Amino acid sequence: MDFCRTLRGFASHQHKSEIYDEAKKFLKKRIEKVKYANIGQNDFDHWHELNCRDLIQIFQNFQFNVGHAQKWINMSMKYVFIMGLQGFEQVYRHCHCPIDNIILGKLGEKYGSKCPKLSSVWSKLQDYDEYLSFQEWLRSEYKDSALQVDLELWERD
Predict the structure, then answer these.
(1) Domain extents for the chain?
(2) CA nearest to 3, candidates 47, 44, 55
């Protein structure tokens, strides 16, 4: 689980397995809901925000925030496409780029001062509107999909 490094107190919690399993089942069910869905960008963004808020609720006792939630949802969607799972093709162009230090660093190298700065490190990001504004900037730079940013920047390594 990628966010364990940045989620304080979770690794030692006595019910971490149950909480994690609940969150995995929740996210799997929500991802299945966009399979074969014919939705636009605004609908996808709304779906994404609701899922972030619900994951934050599941992990409410662990300082889990928008930064953690976006990373988990966005990496899950990335894996859907990397694995070639069928039925999600129509939502690819709406997917978000997983934001973390590596992506922020690579975007900073590529765009310099043109790249927007977050008000905090990604793992402490609380404001969904700030997060979404960053994704909208990415969409303006990468017309195909904000998720394409992640795939292209990782290919360069």
Answers:
(1) 15-155
(2) 55
